[in-house]
Amino acid sequence: MNTSLDFYPIGSSGTPWGEAERTEWLSRQTRHRSYESEVVSKIERLRDRFDVEEYGRLEYGDERFPLLAIRSRNWNDDLPVMLVTGGVHGYESSGVHGALEFVDQHAAGYVGRANLLVAPCISPWGYERIHRWNANAIDPNRSFYENSPAQESAALMRLVAPLVDRVVMHIDLHETTDTDETEFRPALAARDGKPYTPGGIPDGFYLVDDSEHPQPEFQQAVIAAVEQVTHIAPADDNNEIIGSPVVARGVIEYPLKKLGLCASVTNATYKTTTEVYPDSPRATPEQCNTAQAVAVCAAVDYALAHG
């Protein structure tokens, strides 16, 4: 019988991980970069133009991570609220730095037109380890539901709770990377004791709409803007992207709330999840960051124009 060691070095075939396997997995995780110097320092430099608040604090062993959000300085309850989130998967760098680029370079243009709330790095432990999961081998982006087992998800839900019905647009910034296929999907199969089936990685940018409440024109407005910066992912031979049917150019759909995804945390009319492909030979890190920032601008602009 094949074991999960054929595709992942922890666990055995058909058996979900227990405490021993999770402990072994955690022991293999290495800190590669600094949340403090690469993210917090950038947020601190925005304090002269925006309000910055600590909405939670992660605790993993002897490590502490402040969770920071950026708000429009002159918050006006008469204006629509636009929510931007990034770094739910800490390894997806352009989600974090694209959100910060949007605030630094574009947010001032919305003063007096919208209230902006930006949480640029929801999973700082994952950011430092360049990992999809948190330290408990939990995917925060499948954990946005009541009594969430993920500190990261629970903290964001507390932050937005007073605004759930006031947020008009929520854009959640992500990446699809080659390591999704080489590391994270095999790890997920091993963790859950399920078979691992190899898949493909789309080359280009795409969006995930809410299948329960789709907004196709909104999605296409974002696609049209991003296409000026980077290429859009084509459908595969099955007219799919990562196993989901393509419903329009560069767009697939998920049931956001059913899956516990970040984009489901409010009752916003306009919701989308971006997916940038940073491993493409046709894209640079700078392009990826800019694509995220442009996507945010397009999303906010559309929501403002259509109410």
From TrEMBL:
Sequence ranges assigned to domain Peptidase M14 in this UniProt record: 31-307
UniProt record similarity statement: Belongs to the peptidase M14 family.
Signal peptide (from-to): none
Record InterPro entries: Peptidase_M14 (IPR000834)
Record-given protein name: M14 family metallocarboxypeptidase
